[in-house]
Amino acid sequence: MVINYWPYGIALAAYLLTVRFFRYRRRNAITAKFSGKGRPLSEMTANEAREIMDILQEFEFPYAFQKARTISLLKAGGIPTMSKLFAVTGQNTRKNAGKRAVDTEILLREVHHNGRDTDRYMKAVARMNYLHARYRKAGKILDDDMLHTLGSGVVESFRIVNGEEYRPLTKEEQCAIGIFHKALGEDLGIPWTSLPSHEVGWEDGAHFATELRDWTVGYEARVAKFTATNDQYVRVYVDSATSSLPRFFTTLLRKFVGNELDDVMRSTLGLEKAGILLRATISSIKSFRKLLLRHFTFPRLHPSKALHEKPNPKTGQFNFFPTGLQPWYVKKDIWSLWGPSAIFVRIMGGRLPGSHGDRFHPQGYDLTTIGPQPQEGRGHENMAATMEFLRARNISGCPFQKGYGEKGETQATPIF
Predict the structure, then answer these.
(1) Each residue's pLDDT tens digit, 382-399
(2) What values do phi and psi take at 168, rounded to 5?
(3) Transmembrane region positions (predicted)?
(4) pLDDT tens digit sequence for 176-226
(5) Are 96 and 372 within 8 A, CB to CB?
(6) Are 328 and 99 in contact (CB under 8 A)?
(7) What pLDDT, in 10s, does the model give residues 349-363?
(8) What whole-number distance in Å separates Cα of residue 315 and Cα of residue 303?
(9) What is the 3-state secondary structure (H, E, C) of the chain?
(10) How far apart are CA 151 and CA 298, in angstroms?
């Protein structure tokens, strides 16, 4: 009996072509608005950039952007002034590190996933500015440290998407990322004087993003160095994740994390270099995922939400998704206690919602009070002043078009 494989081949070819047709539709739609019409990137408005960022983060590359945030936060501990500050403020201990990491992640998600004209965005910006203000005024957080933290998001977004996703970023998408980070930097009161083009300006968002990326990498090469506080930072934020398991797993995790960093940041954080076998395994997994996404999977139909859109009706506060071994702000329900991630947390020896009563705030978080315990309930007047300033700003138009900013639209937010 002769088996006819032609029907199977035709079906496979039809499937691959259909995936190809739908897979790139969002990219093509974005590109068509600019290069397709001969429209320069300098005309991209802040609202258009926001729409593109939503597509990238919630439909095209949610994994990559989440990973970029995680890596960029880790890299902050490789800058000696930052790791020293974490240590002297008591935030670099196993007792406080879990909450600090989640609080920072929440604030970043709030500004990344909410429009610049929303209350949630403005509250998150105002809260970050208040928490940073006294350290910036005292010179314990340098302007360049703030610029580096902002730029790390661009560095890692570009690197991870271009290296691990099914396609690289287009110029239009790079432009949107640049516009978003420039706006966020202005709202955080970060000066641009360290960037080469700060006097003459930037052609468009892509130019700004590329320059910020290159400056950030150069800053790490100049400033980052191994210190005791860097090592303490890694032991708290990395090693503690596997502290209940045999030492082998901690070593493996350190090498896995180190593989995500370049030589400069890996050495300044004191992480071990992955061996040939581990590097080959990680590379193979990434290549297989890229191949699977590009040729065999249809694009996402529903957005991958990083935040709850509505507060908990019982508390009026926002709950958070499980992100680690400590359930900060996670609502106690059947899923959070017995779902797949909860079972994994049990195996790893982590805590579940409801552990130690209300210690992990299962009722949710409030953007006006989130932060280190000594700062809870403080800063309302400062935050109100920041929000009033943000509401009064003109954030429409094209940030890189000639004439934009002549009436103060690009003025950095004062640190109240």
Answers:
(1) 999 999 999 988 676 777
(2) -80, 170
(3) 6-23
(4) 999 999 999 999 999 999 999 999 999 999 999 999 999 999 999 999 999
(5) yes
(6) yes
(7) 778 887 777 888 999
(8) 26
(9) CCCCCHHHHHHHHHHHHHHHHHHCHHHHHHHHCCHHHCCCHHHCCHHHHHHHHHHHHHHHCHHHHHHHHHHHHHHHCCCHHHHHHHHHCCCCCHHHHHHHHHHHHHHHHHHHHCCCCCHHHHHHHHHHHHHHHHHHHCCCCCHHHHHHHHHHHHHHHHHHHHHHCCCCCCHHHHHHHHHHHHHHHHHCCCCCCCCCCCCCCCCCHHHHHHHHHHHHHHHHHHHCCCCHHHHHHHHHHCHHHHCCCCHHHHHHHHHHHHCCCCHHHHHHCCCCCCCHHHHHHHHHHHHHHHHHHHHCCCCCCCCCCCCCCCCCCCCCCECCCCCCCCCCCCCCCHHHHHCHHHHHHHHCCCCCCCCCCCCCCCCCECCCCCCCHHHCCCCHHHHHHHHHHHHHCCCCCCCCCCCCCCCCCCCCCCCC
(10) 32
Q: CA-to-CA distance for 206 and 43, rounded, in angstroms?
A: 12
Two tokens at 344?
Answer: 């994994």
Tokens 């509401």 identify what position?
391
Nearest to 155 by CA among 133, 191, 181: 181
> CB-based contacts of 119: which residues, under 8 Å, 6+ apart?
387
Could you tell me how many residues make up the chain?
416
The Cα–Cα gap between 352 and 342 comes to: 7
How many Cβ atoms sit within 10 Å of the Cβ of residue 301?
A: 7
For the chain, the straight-line distance linking the first and the last C-alpha, in angstroms and rounded, comes to 82
Q: Which of 58, 54, 205 is nearest to 116 (CA)?
A: 54
Q: Is it the case that residue 403 has pLDDT exceeding 80? A: no
Pull the structure tokens for residue 327. 């359930």
- What is the maximum alpha-carbon separation in the chain? 84
> Is residue 86 predicted with pLDDT exceeding 80?
yes
Q: Give the residue carrying structure tokens 């071994």.
A: 325
Q: What are phi and psi of 76, to 5 degrees?
A: -60, -30
Confidence of residue 408 (pLDDT cuts 50, 70, 90): very low
The residue type of 321 is F
Token digits of residue 233: 């930072």
Give residue 412's pLDDT band: very low, low, confident or very high (50, 70, 90): low
